[in-house]
Every structure is written in C-alpha cells, then in structure tokens.
Amino acid sequence: MSIFHLYTAVFGVFESFLQRSAHLGFAMILSFAIYKPSKRLNQTKIPWYDVLAILMTVGIFIYFAINAENIASRMSYVEELSQLQIVIGMIAGLLLLEVTRRVVGTALMLIVVTCLAYALWGQYIPGFLSHKDFTFMWIIDHLFYTTGGVFSIPLGVSATFIFIFVFFGKFLEITGAGKFFIDLSVAAMGKYRGGPAKTAIFASSTMGTISGSAVANTVTTGAFTIPMMKKTGYNKEFAGAVESVSSSGGQIMPPIMGASAFIIASYVGVPYTAVALAGIIPALLYYLCLFFQVDLRAKRKGLRGLRKDELPNLKRVLIEGYLFFIPLLVIVFFLMNGNSPMRAGLYAIVSVILVASLKSSTRLSLKKIIDGLDLGARAVLETAIACGAAGMVIGVLSLTGLGLKFSGLILTLAGGSLFLTLIFTMISSIILGMGLPTVAAYIVQVALTVPALIELGVAPLAAHMFVFYFAIISAITPPVSLAAFAAAGIAGSDPMRTGITALRLGIAAFIVPFIFVYGPSILLIGDALTIIITLVTAILGIIAMAAAAEGWVFRHAVWYERLMLFLGAVSLVYTGVISDLLGLGFLLIVFVLQKYTLNGNFKEIKKAQ
To answer: Membrane: is it a keyword of this entry (predicted)?
Structure first.
C-alpha cells in the first residue's frame, strides 16, 4: 500500500476510479489482516474467515482495476449492470460494512445500514421523506460503479493528499522530531508562570502536525506534560483538560491541518493553501483563549514555572534539533509556490530523510524506513475506511435527495434564521462527531447541513469550516469526550469532570466558528482593513471570554463582572461598529472596576450598591 502511494506521488496518480479503488482495496485488505472481528478475541493468527474476506477483497479490487477504464467510461444508469457486477457490488458493500465496524466503529456502520435501508424502502415512508422507487441494481450502480458513492471526492482526497501527509508525519515521528518539539516547548515556556500548562499548549499544537489525531496527540504529549502540570500545582482535572484541549486543536493548526481540511479544499474548489491560510487566525484565537485561561489560573493560584535546573537548555535544544524545521518549511514553500499538496508532501518526506541523515542519532536505517512505511499505512486505515463508508452515505443522500430535504427541514425549523440554523448545525455536528471520526462526521454534514448554510448566504469556505470545527471539538465535549477521557487516564482524574473542565477551557472552539460566519474576513476573505479590524476585535473578545471563564482579571471577578466580560466578548465577536463599541464599553467598565477595587476598596463599592 505504501509503495503504491509513493509510486503515484512520484510518477503521477492513475485515473480517478483506479486510484480510489486501489486505495480502498489495500486499506480493506490490511484492515482484515490487522483488526480482529472482536476485541475479546486473543487470536495471534488470522482466522479462516478473515483469510476468506481478504481473498474476496483481492478478487473484487482486481476486477475493479482491470475494468477501471470501462467502468469510468460507461453510461451509468443507462447501461445495465451484469449479474457478476451486481454480485461484486453487493459483496463489496458487505465487506466494507464489516471492515467499517472493526476499524471505525459500530456507529458509522449503523448509519450506513440505515441509509441503505432508506434507499431500498424509503418509497414506503409517507410524507416528504418518501422518494421514488429505486431498483437494487440502480443503487449498486450508483454506489460502486460511479464516483458519486463509495469512490467519491472524500476517498479521492484520502487516496492522494491525505495519505502522503500521513506518511510525512510518521517519517517525522520516527526521526525523533516529537521529542524535539516537546523539549523546545519546555525550554521556551517552562520558566514562565504556569509554564508546564503553556508547554502543553505549544507542544500539542506542534505535535498535532505529526500525529493528526486528538487522542493520539493527547496520549503522546500528555504522558510528559500532565505529570509536570500536576507537580507545579495544577489540579489533576485541570491538567488533563489542558492537554486534551491543546491536542484537539492540532487538527485546526496550519500548515498541516486535519484530514478533513484537504476534503474541504476539494469540495469548495480552492487550493489547500487557501484553506490553510484561512485557518491561521481561527487557530491562533483558539490557542490564545486557552493560553490566557491557564495564565489567569496560574496567577490566581500563585503558581510558578519550572526551576532553572528542571529546564532543558534552549540553545542546546535548538542546536540539536533545528533541522526539524526544514521539512515544515519545505511544505510551506512548495504549497505557497503553487505545487499540489501531494507533490509538496513528497518533497517534505524526501527532506525528512535527507535532514535525518545529517546526524547519526537521527539517521534512518533501512529498518526504520520500513517501519515508517508500515506506520504510515496503518495510520491511514481509519481515514480511508471512513471515507469509503461515508461515500455510501453521500451516495444514498444524493440519489434519494435526502440531503436537500434535510437542509430544507433545518431552514423550515429555523424559520430562515441564520443564527438558529447555525445552532442546529452545531448540535448535529457535535453529536455526529461523538460517534464518528472527524472526517466521517464532516463528510455527512457536507451533505446534510452545509447546503442550508450556503443558501442563507454563508460563504462556502466559512460553511465548511463551521462544520469542520464542531466535528473536531466533540473530542472535548461530554458525555463522549474521547480526548478528555484519554487525558483523565494519564492524570488519574475523574473522566467526566475532566471533560467538563475541557469544555470550559475549549470555549473558544464554540465561538470562533460563529466569528468566521458573521465575519468571514477572519478567514482572510475581504479587504485588508476589514480583516485587521475583525482580528483586533476578535482577539479582545477571546481574551474577555477567557477572563469570564476563569473569573479573574487583576483579581477575582464577581458575578456581574464575569457577566459583563461575557457580554463584552459576545459583542466584540459579533461584527459591526455598534456591537464593537458596546463590547469595548463592557470591557472598559470591568477594567475600571478591577483597577479601582484592586487595593482593598472592593467592600466600599459593594456597600454603596
């Protein structure tokens, strides 16, 4: 699988149906070999039924490969499928359902099954949910013999851009770049007030580029940062929450964002660089809010940074690992110069190997390179399978028109209100994200809710980014906050309390998406002056929200001060001159109150009320 994708990265991709079917075929074969049918089984050998599943998968995708040109050029729905093609499509669907259950989870499999049942029998449902009668052959044709179902855009992106960037991350990981970024974060931030928590923020935001997974990032960096935070005085729930929120933000941090960002680029029809550039300011606002919360908590608790003897030497860390910045700069350079993400990722992988070869401690042996190929293939399995399964959902929604019907229902329930439509979209995105990987949750939302947002005048990029953000933050949203639960295991804290604390620390993730809907200039859309004004007011609003959440500015903030901070934050986030002036007014009042009552005068004001 790895060699196939590296070959296509070097010599060019095959015709879209062949490229996508080969990608999914390799992913399914490896998944049947690696993932057991049940976690309770302790088998060391591949059972006979999995061998049979692998052989059937090989046969099916060899058929697709041999006939790719004919399948791509045939007139779908007009030329009838042969009995063999129908049987192949049916078996491929059953195998994909089973591998989805093993790799991605039961939730996505059940969603796919529900959609298939709707496609088969939805004509018997009364009311607006009813659709025309589709034959079994028509459904198989649409899902497996066109690029509108399983082999649609998401799988195409996974088969090209996503795979090569996952490879890049894994090669960077085996060279020891992860340790360098953690050491650099400790050396740079550890000495300051609340240093360990700030270290977690910087380390996790950079490690997100390598791991691409909120839970994996949490476990990797959390094993180091969480004990360090607890040691310096942060309670265990707070320590776990900081790490989980920091790690969850890795998918929104350019230059290498989550897998869904590449799919956004394909759906919106813009270069990936446009998505990455649009994501810069929102990501900075997300981490800025978290940074101020941990800083204010440290100030409130009187927490200090690490002692000098506990810190790595910054100069020595940079001397030992500065070369790890080169691959990241290579990606940025080639992307900004108009190269495709696949080509930029390939050059970055080559640069990793070359950079690593300059030092004996990081030099990649043949075994390490093989390990990198193995890790890369394993890491992309979930995304590839999720994209294939989500493609079945997309296929049913487009075939039956259910996606447009759902969008119409949302618009009707919201009464045409953009705000209510955003709220409904936010809730559905979070719920989907609780049971599905980010990429699958995002893809489903593209078909269900994004059309409603665009119809109400939301910029396409902003609409896609909106659902992308909320699909991500399900990792820190109780009751199923997987990243927070992973951090709780390391911190030894109560999982639900950690999740609730993470929800508060990640408050910016609930605000920032609304900012770029109401003020798309924050996505670098529009003229320079508007972008600057929106950025300044958004920063002030985010800082005010952090202070309101933590209940501290110069001293403890009483309830009405926190309320004014919150109202000021919301006013500044909502674009417009009047709302900005109102927000600044609220912040000015709180500033005066906090300054005036800082030196023991608080009781006098309280008596005067």
So the answer is: yes
Percent of the chain with pLDDT over 90: 30
Count Cβ atoms within 10 A of the Cβ of residue 172 and give its class: 0-12 exposed, 13-18 middle, 19 or more buried. buried
Query: Can you list the positions of beta strands (E) in 16-175?
Result: none
| Residue 599: predicted pLDDT | 45
Token representation of residue 80: 């009838």
**Closest of 192, 92, 169 to residue 392, by C-alpha:** 92
| Pure H helices in 473-558 | 482-491, 495-505, 508-518, 528-550
Q: What is the CA radius of gyration of the chain?
A: 25
pLDDT given at position 288: 92
Q: Under 8 Å CB-to-CB from 438, ≥6 apart: which residues?
A: 251, 258, 259, 260, 468, 471, 472
Question: If you search the block for the tokens 């396409």, which residue do you land on?
Answer: 460
Q: Which of the four pLDDT bands, split at 50, 70 and 90, describes residue 607? A: very low
Which DSSP string corresponds to 523-534? GT-S-HHHHHHH
Q: Taking Cα atoms as reference points, which of 249, 287, 282 lies closest to residue 531?
A: 282
Which residue carries 């699988």 as its tokens? 1
Residue 374 has which token pair?
């193995």
Which residue type does 322 have? Y
Residues 261, 272: contact at Cβ < 8 Å? yes
| pLDDT for 416 | 84
Residue 329 CB neighbour total at 10 angstroms: 12
By the 10 Å C-beta count (0-12 exposed, 13-18 middle, 19+ buried), 387 is classed as: buried
Nearest Cα to 386, choosing from 68, 92, 146, 97? 97
> Position of tokens 């030992």?
320
Report long-range pairs for 333-337 (Cβ below 8 Å, ≥24 apart): 335/255, 335/271, 335/272, 335/273, 335/276, 336/273
CA distances in angstroms from 234 to 194, 238, 303, listed in the order given: 9, 6, 8
Contact indicator for 225, 199 with CB cutoff of 8 Å: yes
Confidence of residue 609 (pLDDT cuts 50, 70, 90): very low
Q: Any residues with CB less than 8 A from the CB of 338 and at least 6 apart, and which?
A: 271
Distances (CA, A) of 147 to 37, 112, 489: 29, 17, 42
SS3 552: strand
pLDDT for position 356 = 87
Distances (CA, A) of 353 to 26, 180, 255, 308, 316: 25, 16, 20, 34, 22
Please provide the distance, in angstroms rounded to a whole number, between the alpha carbons at the two ends of the chain: 72
Cβ count near 307 (within 10 Å)? 10
Condensed to tens digits (0 to 9), the pLDDT of residues 70-102 reads 888 888 777 888 899 999 999 999 999 999 999
Over residues 555-571, mean pLDDT = 89
Q: Which residues contact 596 (CB under 8 A, 6 or more apart)?
A: 605
* Beta-bridge mates of residue 552: 556
Structure tokens, 430: 């979070």
* CB-based contact 401:116 (threshold 8 Å): no
Structure token pair of residue 254 = 């350019």
C-alpha 63/C-alpha 85 separation (Å) is: 9
For residue 167 the two structure tokens come to: 């490879």
Query: What pLDDT digit, counting tens, does each position of 296-338 carry?
Result: 998 888 888 888 888 888 888 898 888 888 988 998 898 888 8
